[in-house]
């Protein structure tokens, strides 16, 4: 979440979806009561290091990482939250003080803290003991979140065992000490909230979310025959399509297929965030694709669509709306439409927190497309319109970075990974903007001039680039024809 949004939350003050707690040197005693209440209601934001008047009192900088680590561990402790719900606190510096922001999504399950059920109103958290009020929470969640629909006849054998290995590898890459890594497949599904009991009907079993995440393709199609994601390219043939991906597989593989489709058809302009090369295409469309998957209403037969035009990308998916109209990056309230699926994708490291899609796309879209008007439109159909400018037809980086890396590996042996990364960075900069000299490439890559001169000598010796011009003051560096041909072959 952008720090501007945290400041906006503090500025608005406490409410049913926002809670401030002083936490100078330890976690507040009633913290998990508030977390439990927000999980049971509509979710919200908890900020530690702010008093109830909205005055920033701060968290001790010397122990802030210890506190966040404890918070993550305790959120997986059934004595604190039952069923557990792993949370991801974020640390921010506001002026001279440090605060911890905790985004709590609405859950599709009912939770307890220390054996008690809590709910939330505009006056704060309150303990729920009356049977009717408990039933109201169950009914609200059962009727609202179709991902929690129980399928009692689904067995562990109906899941794709390979997906459990894939999920564990992704979780390990995101957090090598994640508590789910030591669990069996059955235990993982239970801890992730993908197995549940409906106390109103007495049904127990795996949920629709479990089937969508881990189900075999035939299992998914039997339960949801209308489920599909239709990805199209309409740059030239706008009546039909230039290319198509018809995706009916599980959500874990569907994400990878859609990201590969984007990489195939949209380029990635050269971009440095400080001194680090970052993929703008990856940042933006990771968010768009996760948004489609996490917030789609799967009980609706409307197919999700992802369409690449020459100047924009448009997506549509069925939605269970919380409002209508255009969403603003500063004024919207993130609300999970499928909390269990959202939580699981967070464990996989495929998105950071609710609302990150709107925030990150607005942050990076100008650098990506030259335009700054992405649209996120809430309604019965959720629609996004992402301008791409001309980047889908031009540029060599991104789509061709693999070709550039391959050319370097084939021509220069024995270099360290760090040197290879900088050689790729420099050669990509030259491919993007040929005919320039060392000072221009220093500005683009943020590498030291002496380093650029050394790497240019390596690239020239390897036959990857050449200098063209009558004099050093008027000439510049160009790709050799063999490298250009390699890039063009990948591009086509």
CATH topology-level fold name of the largest domain: Heat Shock Protein 90
Name the strands of the widest sheet in spatial order.
12-11-15-16-19-18-17
Strand content: 15-25%
Per DSSP E runs of 2 or more residues, the count of β-strands stands at 21
Provide mean pLDDT, rounded.
86
Q: What is the global morphology?
A: globular
Task: Describe the model.
With 492 residues, this protein is of the alpha+beta class. It is built from 17 helices and 21 strands. The chain has helices at residues 3-12, 31-40, 64-75, 131-144, 161-174, 185-191, 208-214, 217-223, 251-265, 280-295, 339-347, 356-369, 401-411, 417-432, 438-445, 449-461, 481-491; strands spanning 18-21, 44-48, 90-94, 97-104, 112-113, 116-121, 124-128, 150-151, 195-197, 204-207, 229-233, 243-247, 272-273, 276-277, 304-308, 312-318, 325-326, 375-378, 381-387, 465-468, 476-479. Strand 9 (195-197) and strand 10 form a beta hairpin. Helix 10 (280-295) packs antiparallel against helix 11 (339-347) and helix 13 runs antiparallel to helix 17. The model is unreliable at 391-399 (pLDDT under 50).
Could you name the key traits of this structure?
single chain, 492 residues, alpha+beta, Methyltransferase, Cobalt-precorrin-4 Transmethylase, Domain 2, Heat Shock Protein 90, Arc Repressor Mutant, subunit A, 3 domains, 7-stranded mixed sheet, 4-stranded mixed sheet
């Amino acid at each position: 979440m952008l720090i501007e949004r945290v400041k906006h939350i503090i500025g608005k003050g406490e409410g049913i979806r926002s809670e401030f707690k002083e936490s100078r040197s330890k976690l507040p005693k009633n913290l998990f009561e508030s977390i439990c209440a927000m999980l049971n209601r509509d979710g919200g934001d908890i900020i530690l290091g702010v008093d109830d008047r909205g005055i920033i009192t701060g968290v001790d900088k010397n122990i802030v990482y210890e506190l966040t680590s404890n918070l993550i561990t305790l959120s997986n402790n059934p004595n604190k939250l039952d069923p557990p719900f792993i949370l991801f606190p974020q640390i921010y510096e506001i002026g001279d003080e440090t605060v911890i922001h905790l985004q709590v999504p609405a859950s599709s399950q009912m939770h307890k803290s220390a054996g008690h059920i809590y709910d939330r109103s505009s006056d704060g958290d309150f303990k729920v003991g009356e049977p009717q009020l408990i039933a109201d929470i169950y009914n609200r969640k059962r009727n609202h979140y179709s991902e929690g629909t129980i399928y009692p006849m689904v067995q562990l054998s109906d899941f794709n065992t390979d997906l459990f290995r894939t999920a564990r590898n992704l979780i390990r890459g995101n957090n090598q000490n994640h508590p789910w890594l030591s669990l069996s497949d059955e235990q993982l599904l239970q801890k992730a909230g993908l197995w549940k009991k409906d106390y109103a009907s007495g049904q127990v079993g795996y949920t629709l979310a479990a089937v969508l995440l881990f189900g075999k393709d035939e299992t998914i199609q039997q339960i949801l025959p209308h489920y599909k994601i239709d990805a199209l390219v309409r740059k030239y043939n706008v009546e039909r399509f230039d290319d198509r991906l018809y995706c009916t597989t599980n959500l874990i593989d569907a994400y990878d297929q859609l990201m590969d489709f984007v990489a195939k058809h949209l380029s990635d302009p050269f971009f440095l965030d400080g001194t680090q090369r970052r993929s703008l295409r990856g940042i933006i469309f990771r968010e768009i694709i996760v948004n489609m998957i996490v917030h789609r209403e799967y009980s609706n037969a409307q197919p999700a669509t992802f369409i690449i035009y020459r100047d924009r990308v448009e997506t549509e998916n069925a939605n269970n709306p919380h409002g209508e109209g255009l969403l603003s990056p500063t004024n919207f309230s993130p609300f999970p439409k499928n909390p269990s699926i959202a939580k699981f994708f967070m464990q996989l490291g495929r998105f950071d927190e609710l609302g990150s899609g709107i925030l990150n796309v607005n942050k990076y879209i100008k650098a990506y497309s030259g335009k700054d008007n992405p649209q996120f439109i809430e309604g019965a159909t959720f629609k996004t319109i992402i301008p791409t400018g001309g980047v889908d037809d031009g540029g060599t980086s991104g789509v061709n970075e693999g070709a550039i890396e391959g050319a370097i590996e084939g021509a220069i042996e024995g270099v360290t990974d760090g040197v290879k990364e900088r050689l790729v960075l420099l050669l990509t900069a030259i491919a993007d903007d040929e005919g320039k000299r060392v000072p221009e490439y220093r500005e683009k890559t943020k590498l030291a001039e002496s380093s650029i001169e050394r790497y240019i000598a390596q690239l020239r010796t390897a036959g990857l680039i050449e200098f063209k011009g009558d004099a050093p003051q008027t000439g510049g560096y160009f790709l050799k024809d063999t490298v250009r041909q390699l890039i063009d072959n990948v591009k086509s």
